[in-house]
Design goal:
Arc Repressor Mutant, subunit A; three-stranded antiparallel beta sheet; two-stranded antiparallel ribbon; about 45% helix
Length: about 220
């Protein structure tokens, strides 16, 4: 039946059923062409969910951030897209990276990601049988223009948490007038020092908040 529908034309010169296997590639290409992140696909056995996010992948602030990085180390177009994606999602897999650049083959994608690790911009993590990548402190440090960078913000963050209780990274950034990537960087340092703790087991959960170690005790 599918083969018959593929050859059955309708008004406008299109077919009743699109050629199988071309729809996903078309979605990836179109969303990339308009500067949007790739859609998320979820196979639910009996249904198939596609989520298209209306968020510009490289917004003006992200573009400035990428340009500041490129002043210190050259980036390929695929690497720029991967870094931009990570700035929004905080986690990137090889499959995610290839969805951003559909023409990129597996071995080339692996080389591009390894290059970002060597440049000190990504950190690789093993999770069972697969690897994912996160931004390093060095990459996050480029988020704020040099002229606007402030000094150590650890005490300001700790004092804010003591005053208001558990807060998310976005709430801290808004309260202190800081860039979100910079806040995440300081929170990572404070976690390593044992001064703040996340409220959930998964630090990279979108619902995570932070409180001081004193408040936890």
């Amino acid at each position: 039946l599918l083969r018959i529908l593929e050859d059955l034309p309708v008004e406008g010169g299109r077919m009743v059923c699109e050629n199988r296997g071309t729809g996903i590639a078309t979605m990836l290409r179109v969303m990339r062409d308009v500067g949007l992140p790739p859609p998320l696909f979820e196979d639910r056995v009996t249904t198939f969910l596609v989520v298209a996010r209306n968020v510009t992948l490289v917004d003006p602030e992200t573009g400035k951030w990428l340009n500041r990085i490129a002043q210190h180390t050259p980036l390929t177009e695929a690497q720029r897209l991967g870094l931009a994606y990570l700035r929004q999602t905080e986690r990137l897999t090889n499959a995610d990276f290839r969805r951003l650049s559909p023409r990129l083959e597996l071995h080339r994608a692996t080389q591009e990601l390894a290059g970002l690790v060597r440049k000190g911009l990504l950190e690789s993590h093993r999770a069972r049988r697969w690897t994912f990548y996160t931004l390093t402190d060095r990459a996050l440090a480029f988020a704020v223009e040099p002229a606007r960078r402030r000094g150590d913000r650890r005490e300001a963050i700790v004092n804010l948490l003591l005053e208001r209780g558990a807060l998310s990274a976005k709430e801290i950034a808004r309260a202190l007038g800081l860039e979100l990537p910079a806040v995440r960087r300081w929170l990572r340092i404070l976690r390593d020092e044992g001064r703040v703790v996340p409220t959930t087991a998964r630090v990279r959960s979108r619902y995570v908040r932070y409180r001081t170690s004193e408040q936890q005790a």
